[in-house]
Amino acid sequence: MNAERAATGGPESGPLAGSSEGAGSSEGEPPEGLPPRAGTSPLRYGIGMFGTSLPINLVKGSMLYVYVELLGLDAVVYATVYAVYGVLDAVDNPVFGHLSDRTRSRWGRRRPYLVTGALVLAGTTIALFSVPGPVAESAVGLAVWFAVFAITTEIADSLINASYGALLPELFTHEKRRATANAVRQGAQLIALVIALALTPVLARNVLGTEGSTVGYGRLAVIFAVVAAAVILWTAFGVREDPALDAEPKPQFFRSVGQILSTPQFWTVGVVNACYGAAMALVLGGLQLYVHHTLGGTALDASILQLVVIVVAIGMLSVWAAVVRRKGAAWTWRLALPVAAVGFIPMYFATDLITGIFAGLAVAVGYSGVLATNDLVIARVLDADAARHGTHRSGLFLAAFGVLGRLNALVTAGALASLAVWFGYRNGADPGPDPGQAFRVYLSLYPFALLLIGTTVSRFIRLPAAPQEAGSQEAGS
User: Fold this and answer.
1) Stretch 336-345: mean pLDDT, rounded?
2) For 199-208, what is the mean pLDDT?
3) Cα–Cα distance between 421 and 417 in angstroms, integer?
4) Which string of b and e fits 64-78 if b means at least 16 CB within 10 Å?
5) CA angle 217-221-224, nearest 5°?
6) Which of left, alpha, beta for 24 (phi over 0: left; psi -120 to 50: alpha)?
7) Region 196-217: what's the mean pLDDT?
8) How far is the C-alpha of 65 from the C-alpha of 74, rounded, in Å?
9) How many CA atoms lie within 13 A of 68 on its CB side?
10) Per residue in 138-182, pLDDT tens?
């Protein structure tokens, strides 16, 4: 496929010629002389995100609580390791994305990495939450164990997501069907959040273990790891990649990087995505501590608050999807960002579970809106790149976005370290004079500031047209 034909909107236009959206699909006529090719089910693809989200959200939502609050790892040590985690996370993303783009095998380009990553992620997640007694009793041993398995878990997660994310624009080329597939996968992610975030405090501290112990978290990690691996493998073997893409020239790394870096939307959309990712990373990592120190709540309270927020976010997905269908992804994305920013203000004023729930509802509305639109906006940038350069390198492009987005670990590390400097919070045994105020700032003001930056940048972005609108620009985009 060449760039000129892609730009005309002909039968090979869009990110995946011959996909379920275009030529050779179950929804369109195949090219003359070729048999029809079955497409990938949006349901089967989308459910895969349940598997990719389950273990990593256990990590993001409970790693800080387990290592700092329960095991007594110093917050500054944690922040230092987490900063290294973020840098490595940013570096390995382009490597894995480029390898995925260049792979040509009988199993496809993306499937080998989904399978390998699923198995590695299962093992590292279990190890991360199963710290041996002698290791936990040594400050150095605990730090080393944390560093090794936090980083290897990150590597496995990157390996999976570099390929899984690249499949969205390649398998589903029209924005409406793409929005359907994205809604399924974001719904699957939110269900994983219900389990990995909302239910984890009660399951780990009241059902599978006890308060003040890490045993329940270790048992939960085993369950989540096995279920996640099974789901990812089920999705991987149900994906139907387009073999015609194998005929495209293999992307050259340095040339591709140069072209990506020269794309204006890479920087603008990337910064917005990074701000959103950093804000949500703060929330995922700090919510249990916010409930404990700021709201004075229990494990059950943490589960209730997270459950309410996630369930409302799931319900709002259909509302935001309807707005996307009516107004387009770009317009809706720009609306969702400020709504998400403002939603964090009530979290600062919450004092107990009831007021925390009302504040959480405000967060859920905006959070759901960004979930419903963010990947659609990024997919448009990938479509335009494929049309312009005549080759699909979604893995590398998404990984390049990931360099900006995954550096949010540096923001998270800095935010946590600031609590030690300004509020004296070191760990559960040495929380400082006012840990409640510390985590009030951590979970409200920091995310608000980040999303405010993202909202401002989004106003100056001109996005490519939606796939079905080739040659015309969406109003307001």
Assistant:
1) 95
2) 91
3) 7
4) bbbbbbbbbbbbbbb
5) 130
6) left
7) 90
8) 12
9) 28
10) 999 999 999 999 989 988 998 898 888 878 877 777 767 777 888
Whether pLDDT at 31 is above 50: no
Predicted pLDDT of residue 47: 92
Round to whole Å and give the CA distance between 356 and 470.
45
Q: Structure tokens of 62?
A: 């409970």
Higher-pLDDT residue of 45 and 165 is 45
Whether the per-residue pLDDT at 119 is higher than 60: the answer is yes
Task: Name 20's Cβ contacts closer than 8 Å, sequence gap at least 6.
Answer: 26, 27, 38, 39, 40, 171, 172, 177, 240
| Three-class HEC string of 56-92 | HHHHHHHHHHHHHHHCCCCHHHHHHHHHHHHHHHHHH
Instruction: Show Cβ contacts of residue 354 under 8 Å, excluding neighbours closer than 6 positions.
Output: none
Half-sphere exposure for 336 (CA within 13 Å, toward CB)? 30
Q: Do residues 191 and 50 lie in contact, with contact meaning Cβ atoms separated by under 8 Å?
A: yes
Answer positive or negative: Cα dihedral of 203, 308, 197, 351.
Answer: negative
DSSP annotation of 21: T
Cα gap 424→417, rounded to integer Å: 10
The contacts found for 350-357 with CB under 8 angstroms, 24 or more apart, are 350/294, 350/295, 351/295, 352/295, 352/296, 352/297, 353/291, 353/295, 353/297, 353/301, 353/304, 353/305, 356/291, 356/295, 356/297, 356/301, 356/305, 357/304, 357/305, 357/308
Tokens representing 233? 């493998």
Per-residue tokens: 147 = 């560093």
Q: How far apart are CA 212 and CA 69, in angstroms?
A: 9
**What DSSP state is assigned to residue 244?**
G
Give the span between the Cα atoms of 264 and 462, in whole angstroms.
9
For residue 252, the 8-state DSSP code is P
